[in-house]
Amino acid sequence: MAGAIIENMSTRKLCIVGGILLVFQVIAFLVGGLIAPSPTTAVPYMSVKCIDVRKNHHKTKWLMPWGPNHCEKLKDFDEAVSRQIEANDIVFAVHIPLPSKEMSPWFQFMLFIIQLDIAFKMDNDLKENAEITLDVSLAYRDNTFDDWKEIAHAIEIRKLKCTFGSPKTLESEGRHYDCDFLPFMEIGSVAHKYYLINIRLPVNERKGINVGIGEIKDIRLVGIHQNGGFTKVWFAMKTFLTPSILIIMVWYWRRITLMTRAPVLLEKVIFALGISMTFINIPVEWFSIGFDWTWMLLFGDIRQGIFYAMLLSFWIIFCGEHMMDQNERNRLSGYWKQVGPIAVGSFCLFIFDMCERGVQLKNPFYSIWTTEVGTELAMAFIIVAGICLCLYFLFLCFMVFQVFRNISGKQSSLPAMSKARRLHYEGLIFRFKFLMLITLACAAMTVIFFIVSQVTEGHWKWGDLTIQVNSAFFTGIYGMWNLYVFALMFLYAPSHKSYGEDKSNGDLGVNSGEELQLTTTITHVDGPTEVYKLARKGAQE
């Protein structure tokens, strides 16, 4: 009867805690779905064909597609042929943003992809595996009266991937190839109001540069940037969550330092997980509004990588510390086989990111996928990381299976124990199963919302109410993992208080048949966890 009361009190109070966390979880999804706009916006740009007349005393090398100082334009290439204008004298100019608009630091980043309109012509056919050479320049200015200042200049090569759906005959001349979008440019900050892109297609028949690439009619760009409204909501969430996790971290570590024993491995790992979550939460992005920090995308990737590596390591160590028959507990070196693949996979992804976004800090037009060597290198890093991830999940599934097998096999020993010790071990078993359930729920929600955000149009409309699914995914999943870390530190914080020893030390003593150690993390004498504390207080009440 007493055991049933204890179990009911423990379950009731855990349900209250779970209910409060669930409310915050729902709020996190609603903030993204109802308040924030779509995370990103895609803007199409059509380049303007300009004539580079610098040989004729043109004062500036930057060619504007429109405005008071716009370039001399070409309607099409037939006009260029009739006027005997060479291909090397034609510049494709794109102004960012469109007329009467301004860019903003709240946009955070700019990503551009390029598509070429290539027409079929019998005497100028597109060769198989053709490569196009782009002489590209990027400039900025903050008002319409300033001169353009160069940000970057590069000569890039892109491999064309085009198909032609009709027979290549005279009747098909003039029809366009179906060409894939190609990576063009990525910048990790939007610190200026206006940007200008000039693209040249230099032709050198002797060196084979831009020969056999078909008849290019136009160049189109698609610019993708983060929405300013979503950025403000995202920054607000980070600003709110940072002190929340910091407070629970301070409280959690204070509980540990009040113990007479040294912190054990699982407590250290949970604290490290809290630090990595705080590292993500700290809203350093606020500084990007006033500073041109192009490395913010790379810095964000590194922060996320550290958190996910810590999260995966925590799951392994959590299972290992609940292995009842394992002797190599409370030592990080005992988990090198399981943690090793995490370290190798994380290192491979870090090298890949440095080869991509690291190089883009100097050359925003660079892409590792544009060359065969770069593609093979990138795929090698990704494959190795994928293999490490598969090995990790095999280890994790095996350890979870072992823990559940041991728990179910030794639960039969619980009735022979004293009441206090039985309650302690029942709490250990319950909190393990409880955390496994929460972990599976978080992982399932992450996968489900990711799939939903990919297959839907980005928003749902119910009457007059519009729900931004993609924004809800970002804010909801971000809030969910913060609540997960919060719940971990709350449930696994030891208590410095004593809730009685069942009136005698003998009641806590166990004989040799009662030696059932589920974890070295926390013992009843050194201080119970919050799960045990709630159950024990319920029994006293």
UniProtKB/TrEMBL annotation:
Q: Which InterPro entries match?
A: WLS-like_TM, WLS_GOLD, Wntless
Q: Can the keyword Transmembrane be found in this entry's annotation?
A: yes
Give every Wntless GOLD domain span: 48-226
Domain (Wntless-like transmembrane) spans 227-496
For this record, the Gene Ontology CC terms, alphabetical, are: Golgi membrane
Q: Give the UniProt keywords, A-Z.
A: Developmental protein, Golgi apparatus, Membrane, Transmembrane, Transmembrane helix, Wnt signaling pathway
This protein's record includes keyword Signal: no
Q: Which GO terms describe its biological process?
A: intracellular protein transport; Wnt protein secretion; Wnt signaling pathway
Report the locations given in the UniProt record.
Golgi apparatus membrane
UniProt topology in membrane: Multi-pass membrane protein
Q: Which residues cross the membrane?
A: 233-253, 265-284, 296-318, 339-359, 379-407, 428-452, 472-493
What Pfam families does the record point to?
A: WLS-like_TM, WLS_GOLD
Tell me one GO molecular function of this protein.
Answer: Wnt-protein binding
| Record-linked PANTHER family | INTEGRAL MEMBRANE PROTEIN GPR177 (PTHR13449), PROTEIN WNTLESS HOMOLOG (PTHR13449:SF2)
According to its UniProt record, which protein family does this protein belong to?
Belongs to the wntless family.
Put simply, this protein is called WLS protein
